[in-house]
Known about the structure:
The chain is an alpha/beta fold and 94 residues long. It has three helices and five strands.
Amino acid sequence: MSDEEILSVLQQKGRITLFTRDAGFYARSRCHERCCIVWMQVSRMECAEYAMRLLKHARFRTFADRRGKVIRVQPTGLNWWERNSTQERSLGWR
């Protein structure tokens, strides 16, 4: 599937959080109210650990907290774009 086909499925299904290591998904234009995209900018071996850290983080614990966002996960913290926002936000790990 192409990236655009993946996005179309995500948007149709809704309430999905997609974790990917593909940097091409980290763009403000990818924000959609029915899904969340998480770019894992960590090694393949660290993906599960950082995915769990994100899902347990107070700011992103529920789907309602993640919806409409494209999030970048990295060892130093989190960056994200939100729907209807022109500014990238960031936050360190606690």
